[in-house]
From TrEMBL:
Domain of life assignment: Bacteria
Domain Thioredoxin, residue spans: 57-222
Name the UniProt record assigns to this protein: Protein SCO1/2
Disulfide pairings: C95-C99
Membership in a protein family: Belongs to the SCO1/2 family.
Any one GO MF annotation of this record: metal ion binding
InterPro entries per the UniProt record, alphabetical: SCO1/SenC, Thioredoxin-like_sf, Thioredoxin_domain
Gene source species: Maribacter stanieri
Keywords from the named record: Copper, Disulfide bond, Metal-binding
PANTHER family for this protein: ELECTRON TRANSPORT PROTIN SCO1/SENC FAMILY MEMBER (PTHR12151), LINALOOL DEHYDRATASE_ISOMERASE DOMAIN-CONTAINING PROTEIN (PTHR12151:SF25)
Amino acid sequence: MNKSIVIILFFIIFASCKEAVKKENIQITETSRVEHLPYYNGESFTPHWITPNTEEEKQFHKIPDFKLVDQLGDTLTQKSFNNQIYITDFFFTSCPGICLKMTNNMTKVQEAFLDHPEVAILSHSVTPSIDSVSVLKTYAEKNGVIDSKWHLVTGDKTEIYNLGRNEYFVENDLGIPKDINDFLHTENFLLIDKNKHIRGIYNGLNRASIAQLITDVNALLEES
């Protein structure tokens, strides 16, 4: 092959590689522009990118007040979580299936934020007629629940189911109407910010999803 042709081919290949690297760098820069977590306001969990501490954020969907009782017999309301981020889920103590794995994974979240009083955990019983305060206390002791960090709550079934389905949107059965007679059962964990907005949904059975939850809690701590 002619020497001059080889030299020309070399410069063409070199220029192409250089351009490819340049484009890749641009993509990385674009991907890293997101500065805060999205907001959610419905069962489809479509992300909304809202600037925190704006009028739009103030008008966005919030978890309403509630009145429930935890494993210590203490009454909890939204005021109990003032100035706190909290992670929430729905379970029952006699669950033979996924609940124990969810509890084990939530324990990892508890451990990650033991030294952060701004982070709490709220687990709702979906069988409140069975899960009395004493039953919840026994379950807490058996599973390493730290009372000051993690609240297992019971209360009025209608209120708990309404919170789960219509406020936290924890079930994935889009468009399927349900009432109080339909059992509420879900593996989802939700991340709630200090202003009571939903900021993330996670599979409570998946290790990678739990790791992402911990990362997102840290992001919220920086945001607030």
